[in-house]
């Protein structure tokens, strides 16, 4: 199982999960996503998945959901995806577009002011 962190976190996000899964015999590894863009990040995760001998389950948190969605298309041994509070964009859709659709985006601090209102 490969665990992919979000844009504002790191592999230690998954430390508790890895600690819970390994004693149960599940080989779980938190992948240090390079955060260089969705295509590059997905290619990196796909290469890590393809390097595993056998079936792979990918889990993604936040932005990691978009990464695993794209990576799964390039790694034939991926057998499932787990999304944890994650983005699941349609083809050609960005995480920022999804966030804006629900009233926010990374770095946005609260709702936009009404026209003419002062912050």
TrEMBL record:
Domain of life: Bacteria
Name of this protein: Alpha/beta hydrolase family protein
Matching Gene3D superfamilies: alpha/beta hydrolase
Taxonomic source organism: Svornostia abyssi
């Amino acid at each position: 199982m490969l665990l992919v962190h979000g844009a504002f976190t790191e592999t230690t996000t998954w430390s508790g999960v890895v600690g819970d899964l390994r004693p149960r015999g599940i080989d779980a590894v938190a992948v240090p996503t390079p955060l260089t863009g969705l295509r590059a990040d997905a290619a990196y995760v796909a290469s890590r998945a393809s390097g595993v001998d056998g079936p792979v389950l990918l889990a993604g948190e936040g932005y990691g959901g978009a990464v695993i969605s794209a990576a799964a298309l390039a790694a034939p041994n991926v057998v499932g995806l787990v999304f944890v509070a994650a983005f699941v964009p349609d083809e050609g859709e960005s995480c920022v577009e999804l966030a804006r659709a629900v009233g926010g985006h990374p770095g946005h601090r609260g709702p936009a002011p009404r026209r003419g209102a002062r912050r």
